[in-house]
Each structure stands twice: as C-alpha cells, then as structure tokens.
Amino acid sequence: MTIRGKLSLAVAIAAVLALPPTASTIDQAPALHISAPTEGTYTSGPTRLVAIVEPAPRAGEVSQVTFFADGHQVCVVPKPPFQCDWDAGERLVEHQVRAVALMASGERLVDTVRTQGLQYSEGVDVDVVQVTAVVTEGGRFVRGLRQSDFRVFEDDRAQTITNFVSQNIPLELVTAIDVSSSMTEALPIVKESAKRFLAGLQPNDQVTVLGFNDNIFTAARRATDQSARVRAIDLMAPWGGTALYDVTIKAIDLLGRQQGCRSIVIFSDGDDQSSHAPIDAAIARAEGSDATIYASGQGRAVHASKLQELLRRLATISGGRAFFTDDVVKLGAVFDEILEDLRNQYLLSYPAPSTRRDGAWHRIRVEVPGGKYHVRARQGYRLAPHQQQP
Asked: Taking a C-beta distance cutoff of 8 angstroms, is the pair 82, 103 a contact?
C-alpha cells in the first residue's frame, strides 16, 4: 500500500471513530422495577413483593435485591426470582415499598412505589355538581331529550345547567365481584354473566374489575383490554369472608374526575363480615360521590334484610338501582338491565351554588316537565369540611 493509501485509510478510520455511537452499539442500561405491588393499589395482609431487572441480567450480574416496607428492611434476595413475602397488616393503609438492587459492578438500582389507604371521607370537594339522569315513561327509556327539557333544583332552588351531554358519554366503570367462600355455587354463572356484560360496553369505556372477600383485589385496571379482563375474571376463585363496605369505598376512590359518567356495579351474596370501614363510612362516601351505584344481591342476600337495606340505600342515593334474586340463572338478565341503563343516561352539570364546606346535605331534584316522565338521578351531595392541619 502506498503512503497516500495508508494516509487515506487512517483518515477513514479516524472519521468512523469520531462518529457518535448508535443505539445498536450501546447496551441498554439496566433498570429495576417493582412489579408487585404496583403504584396506587391497595394492599393488606400477606403480600408478595416482586422486583425485576430489565433488560434481563446475565448470571451473577445482580448480587442481591433488598426490599424495604415503610422504611424497614423486609428481606434480602440473592438470586432471581427477586421476590419475598411481607405482611402488610390488617388495615388498608398507605405503604411505601422500596427495592434496591446491588450490581456486581458496585452500582445500585432503586425503585419505589406507594400503595393507597382507604380514606373514610364523609364528603367531597366540588366546584361543579355533576348529575347523571335516566328518564323513563311507562318503564321504557326516553331518548332524544334536550337540555331545555330538564329542570334541576338544589335545596328546592332552580339551578342553571351549564353542561349537557346525551350521546356518546364517556363512561368510567368499576365492577366489584364478591369472591367470598359463600359464592362457591353462584360464582361460575356470575363470572360468565359479568364477561357478557363487559363485552357489551363501548370500546372507549374505561373499566376496572375488582374481586373482593376479606381483601380487595384489582383483577384488571381501566387501561386493560377486553381479552385481559376476561382472563382476569376466569381466574377468580371463591374463598374468605366479605368486605362489602371496604370495596364500596375503594370503588369510589378508584373513579377519576374527568368529564363523563362514573358508575359502580357491585355483586354480592352476603352481609359484610370483614370490612375495616364501618357501614356509616360507606354510606357517607356514596353521599359525597357522583358515581351511580348498581347493586345486585344473590342467594342468601335475598333473605338478608340488612344487606338489602344497605344496597338499596347506596343505589337510591346515587340514582342507581338494586336487584335481588336467588336464581343465579337470572343474573344475565340483571347485567343486561344495568347495561341498558348505562346506555340511556343523560349527563347534566351546574355550578355548586355554595362554597361552604360544612358537610351539610344538599338535596338534588331533576325534573322533565309534562307529568308523564319518571327521572332517576342522585338525591344529593355533601361538601366536605376543610381538613384541620395538626
């Protein structure tokens, strides 16, 4: 090779070395992620802590992973799978879970998640009062009404409707299915009916599926697609007691604040045996929410007067409905009725006329003048007192 050729080759090599490295020439930096529990979920009792390192590490690349809960060391795991068990306690309170991975290189990887606790608030802060209404005539749904057809009263004073939606209303829904041991016989049909119900919703509806017994399980989050929700319901198995009050509070807490209808569907067959929250807290939470609650009692619930009274009260306060049947075969028809209800809702909003946060009950009445229509809507709301700072 000539001197000129050698110089050209050297220049070319230098130019290549001077180029910035491409994505394919750089190994992705490892990261630690806590996969259980996840951010914002509810945790109580025996809980499995799980962490993963991505991309998957080579053998010996991770020396150990240490888990901490609420500042206390829970365990040290020397090799994958990086998981261990921890008792989160009986009450549904907020926890901080932290994982620290020590790499063979001496580098430390850290991830932290915070779980939620049940808040027994007896009211809600609102600037705009949102009301979901269903209008019927002779038991049949009335469609095609306009904003001018409605009248809204708060504490018997007429209010100005500032927002009105009658079609393609966004829906956020929480479905809570009782998986206590007493549901053993009914659960297979409940699961099939629930899957058919969810399949009848619109593709853009956001749906969270909860299972509950002594504890509350988020089986499918609202971003989950239909096929994943079906698989989550299929995996439900009966055991334990019933925490009906707790799941009512959690379902309300899970609902967002974006514009649209918010609804809760609860299926249970027994009186509450395991809740940490009292019944008054569940009722007060429903009074402070604009979620429409649909409740279905099956089996022994048909003969439990206290449970019927509670479910009817939750449904009536919110503008929803309560169903009772000891024939599990009829559950499909119950789901169908709830689905039709959701498809025939009107959404109205008006500014809250008072800014006083005194926890007082404000009655709501929605009318469609003419005398021939029946309007079902939430009965009122409470404005929460401001919290006192310690």
From this structure: no
d(CA 326, CA 334): 12
Phi, psi of 84 (to 5 degrees): -160, 165
The C-alpha atoms of residue 378 and residue 118 are separated, in whole angstroms, by 23
Q: How many whole angstroms separate alpha carbon 315 and alpha carbon 211?
A: 20
pLDDT in tens, 343-371: 999 999 999 887 666 778 999 999 999 88
- 107-131 pLDDT per residue, tens: 999 999 998 765 544 444 468 899 9
| Token pair 């019933």 in the structure block, residue | 242
Distance, CA of 244 to CA of 277 (rounded, Å): 9
Model confidence over 206-243: pLDDT tens digits? Answer: 899 999 998 898 888 876 678 888 999 999 999 999 89
CATH architecture of 133-350: 3-Layer(aba) Sandwich (3.40)
DSSP 71-87: TEEEEEE-SSSEEEEEE
Which class in CATH covers the domain with range 31-114? Answer: mainly beta
pTM of the model: 0.68
The pairing of beta strand 46-54 with beta strand 31-36: antiparallel
